[in-house]
Amino acid sequence: MVDATPTEGATAILARFVSESRLEQLPSSTRHAARRAVVNIVGCCLSGARHEIVDIAAAALLPWAGAPAASLLGRRERTDILTAALLNGMSSAAYSFDDTHAETILHPSGTVLAALLALAEQQPMRGEDFLPAFVLGVEVASRVSKSVSVAPAVGDIGWSQSGIAAGIGAAVAAAKVLGLDAQGITRAIGIAALQASGFRVALGTMSATLIFGHAAQGGLRSALLARQGLGAPAAPLEGRYGFASLFASYPHLPYLTESLGTRYEVESLAYKPYPCGVVIHPAVDAALAWFRTQRRDGDPIAQVGLRLHPSALALGSRRHPANVLEAKVSLYHWTAAALTHGRASLAEGQQTAIDDASVVRLRDLIDVASDAAMTSEGAALTVVLRSGLQQTISVDRCKGSVANPMSDEDLSEKFRGQVPEPFNAGRASRLLQACWQIDALADVAQLAALCRIEEIGVQ
To answer: 170's torsion region: left (phi>0), alpha (psi -120 to 50) or beta?
Structure first.
């Protein structure tokens, strides 16, 4: 645990904590939570690597990129480390299947991993170096996000927490493995904070995914600039006109430093069983439960009522998404698809499912009520059938939440379902094992190599 000196501000305390932290200081539960995060996010990178969004970004940027020094996960190309961080960060979020910090709706792991893996192919990086850097990157990103978004802090929901905070976490992780001292880490935090950006108006567009890539690239770039000695504000998080005062109308600075070293935010990550916005998951859980237990063939649905936490409507209010990007954040679409097909997989997010007449019909029948008394992990679903029968399903803690987590085997199965076709079963199994044993790897670059699709085919 780090104690503050009278002259230290929040950024300096965080930087000193990061500088002094070691793998052996991390509780076993924290190490295991970090391995879970790696398994989940590497799978997301592999499935997202050939998404149209990533293809477009790669076609635009690779012709202008530097020396091919780093791998693109799930792809054949290699590129410079900054472009690799950007594209791999985008891949991690392309299907909205990534992790979520439960309190903040922050998605930190993809940006932190993208920055670290880009560096792993440039310098020796053992798993025992990677794991604490990853944990600390998630830690700082989560604390920064909490300081501007979690009560008693008052922030604007229009800011993407991943856009404004995850890049700071990536900078911290990269600075840690680069061996920067506390002053260097402070500079990295400051440079990254100056690049914080991302608006939720982008939800439902390709640019929403760019937010994650920008954060990963910006974080890595910040650490490299800090290592070279580029100056930055001494108190970028807490200072006047600094991060907290600009991204919140009422920040809560104690979140930045309280209980440092006694608990770790990586243990507060939730994992998505469904590839859509996390605020939608309680409704999906309730719809799937109805399909399994109360559906009646020959008695179609006439009306659907939902009660949800206000965040579900604030971020998922599109009733009829026009395309797969809008569908990722459509509460109505995923509820209707789950009620119709009893599934909520990658297939239900594709255009065929969006245009399915039975799903379209159900989307029009759903009435959503916002209930501030409900938790963000709960839902109450009422289905009225044509016969007049009324059925109710309640969910207190949706699957994948911290209170109802996916098991290790659930995460392994999710990983297997995202491995692209060029990978044979043997290589997929070795990659999954490497993720679960990340802290034991002699060279983390092995993980990046296992994730790359070779021109001659994957063996």
So the answer is: alpha
If DSSP codes are grouped into helix, strand and coil, which group holds residue 308? strand
- Rounded distance between C-alpha atoms, residue 331 and residue 379, angstroms: 12
What sign results for the dihedral spanned by CA atoms 411, 48, 345, 459? negative
Q: What angle do CA 99, 105, 107 make, to 5 degrees?
A: 35
Grade residue 454 by pLDDT with cuts at 50, 70 and 90: confident
Secondary structure element (H or E) that encloses residue 434, with its range: helix 425-436
Confidence of residue 458 (pLDDT cuts 50, 70, 90): very low
- Reading phi first (left if > 0) and then psi (alpha if -120 to 50, else beta), residue 400 is in left
| CATH class in words for 278-395 | alpha beta
What pLDDT is attached to residue 6?
A: 44
pTM (global) more than 0.85: yes
On the question of a cis peptide bond just before residue 152, with omega within 30 degrees of 0, the verdict is yes
Beta pairing partners, 33: none
- Residue position matching structure tokens 């008394």: 373
Q: Is 367 helix (H, G, I), strand (E, B) or coil?
A: strand
Q: How far from 240 is each of 187, 244, 245, CA to CA, in Å?
A: 17, 9, 7
Is the distance from CB of 89 to CB of 111 less than 8 angstroms? yes
Instruction: Provide CATH 1.10.4100.10 ranges for the chain.
Output: 10-270
How far is it, in rounded angstroms, from Cα 11 to Cα 140?
10
- Cβ neighbours of residue 425 under 8 Å, at least 6 residues apart? none
Q: What is the pLDDT of residues 317-371, one digit of tens each?
A: 889 999 999 998 899 999 999 999 999 998 999 999 999 999 999 999 999 999 9
Architecture of domain 10-270: Orthogonal Bundle (1.10)
DSSP secondary structure letters along 380-431: EEEEEETTS-EEEEEESS-TTSSSSPPPHHHHHHHHHHHS-TTS-HHHHHHH
What is the longest distance spanned by two Cα atoms in the chain? 72
Alpha-carbon separation of residue 361 from 169, 319, 339, 442 (angstroms): 43, 11, 11, 55
Q: For the chain, where do the domains classified as CATH 3.30.1330.120 start and end?
A: 278-395
Give tens-digit pLDDT for 296-331. 988 999 999 999 999 888 878 889 999 999 998 899
CA distance 310 to 328: 18
The packing angle between helices 127-149 and 109-120, to 10°, is 150
Q: Torsion angle of alpha carbons 458, 114, 143, 29, nearest 10°?
A: 30
How far is CA 264 from its chain centroid?
17
